[in-house]
Design brief:
alpha+beta; Immunoglobulin-like; four-stranded mixed beta sheet; 15% helix; elongated
Amino acid sequence: MNKTLLACGFIACFPLIAAADNVELDKELNGLDIETEVVGDTTTEAGPAPGGAGGIQALKVTNNGDVRASCRLEPHPSETAMTGSPATAIEAGESATLRLEGSYSSATIRAKLICEDDS
């Protein structure tokens, strides 16, 4: 019985795991060696916004290059209720987490990652 409950609980989490990958990310890396990974999706306590979803989408940005990079996330123009992240300096070999906050218009978040040489 406990194994069945555990399996059902695990299966119930699949939509939450899948939701974290619903990001269309354009990248403007300007020749920098940058790696990205979607690391989280946290819905707001109030729940999804009417006609869309609400919450915070997190993106781990790793600078694999040998110079400091300045990176920021900007929401797609259609994402009018979402705010981007301020520019974040990421040292060579380091990582940072950037977030898009607010309501988004569909199950897929559209954003652009812009990174520039900050040395």
